[in-house]
Amino acid sequence: MTYAMIPLVLCAARGPSRWDALIRPYPETQVDPKEYRLGPGDSIRVTLFGAVSYTVDISVDISGWVSLYGPGVSSVTGPVSTEENIATGYQSRPSGTFLGKKYLSGISMAEAEDTLKAFYKLFYRKTDVSLSLAYPRVVSVSVLGQVLNQGVMPCSAVERLSDLIVKAGGVTGGADLTGVKISMDGEDRVFNLYRYFLDGDKSQNPLLDNDMVVFIPDSKKSVVVSGAIGLLTIYFNDSTNPDVVKSVEGGRTVRVAWEEGDNVERAIGKAGGLLSKASVEGITVVRGGIRMAASLQTSLEPGDRVEVPRIPSEVYVFGAVKVPGAYQYSPGLTYLEYVSLAGPEERGYTKRFTVVKPDGSRTSVRPQDEARAGDRVIVDRVAFLWYDDYLKVLAAATTIIVTWLTLRR
Fold it and tell me: Of 60, 107, 148, 402, which alpha carbon lies 20 to 30 A from 251's?
């Protein structure tokens, strides 16, 4: 989830306090009023419209109560409690008439709005009420297990389990995202984050709350996905550790938890999805040391390795050339033109070339033949150049003869 950046002055003016505004983001979009539950520290915006027009920002105090105000002259009958001072950052009381208090902690935004509608009807006729979240509260959540940085994380109450994992540096290789355990208030619940990322099931990516303990276990059964794949933000990318997510040869390698019924498509989705240059037709599965062609619907077993190649976009030139390496493929260019780009050495043989095709097969080609993407052109080295080596041999022989004749005199 992303949030809008807010200048410090605006944060201080609209939020409970300058410090809180720095660490709890202002919601960029409306939170789900049926899902988000209010708690101490939340700042909510109450808007009256209809016969009366009035807007006020109020906070839920540490006891779970809110002080409610309406339009009119400021009242002196509503004392500011210590709890309210703490919740509002010791800011001044909102302008308007103090009307009373309501307990809102633990109920959803939708339920709180219904409660306030009933309350304000006692004071104002033909007036409706809307409720929105001005600033979410800060919560402390503990995260343990297969993450880069274990410990207690300060988070916003509008952030979710996946946001917490990103804040902790991401999960390490082999983390079991099918069985993330959350303990709170003596109750343990298990969540499958893959169902959120792949199926959009928001119930598997809960909002964070105070005193949550999140444990991410190690996967007992897994598959490896490598090649032209993306990378979910929850993964920690460390190319120095062979057991975690890493970049290899322009692609990535990710170990993901295996579930009953997983196929190639779902395993790739768990890893981060296909890149635009991925070759679906070239996907292979390595099982027990045996490589076999596969499709997206091929069923997987624990220990399998899925390899996703890239669609070739280069021609490679090696051997007796000055600048070996990859050259961008351009339809219509011949092998000789690619070798010319690489600069053949003096002893490079340019009458025929050896080409290794993407499937590993070798063939001999003519210089004027058209090259194909993914071809590896090998320029052989000539052992004997007749015009050059002949002259060198003749010169050496002449030197020997002249030297011998000189010595006989």
Answer: 148
Single pTM value for the model: 0.70
Residue identified by tokens 């979410």 is 136
How far apart (Å, rounded) are the C-alpha atoms in residues 45 and 128? 14
Burial environment of residue 386 by CB neighbours within 10 A (0 to 12, 13 to 18, 19 or more): exposed
Could you say which of 166, 192, 216 is where a domain stops?
216
- Shared domain check, 60 and 18: yes
Which residue stretches of the chain have pLDDT < 70? 1-30, 73-93, 237-250, 383-394, 408-409
| Strand-pair partners of 212 | 141
The per-residue pLDDT for range 126-148, each reduced to its tens digit, is: 999 999 999 999 999 999 999 99
Q: Are 287 and 301 in contact (CB under 8 A)?
A: yes
Q: Note the pLDDT tens digit of each residue in 171-182.
A: 987 899 999 999
Domains of the chain: total: 4
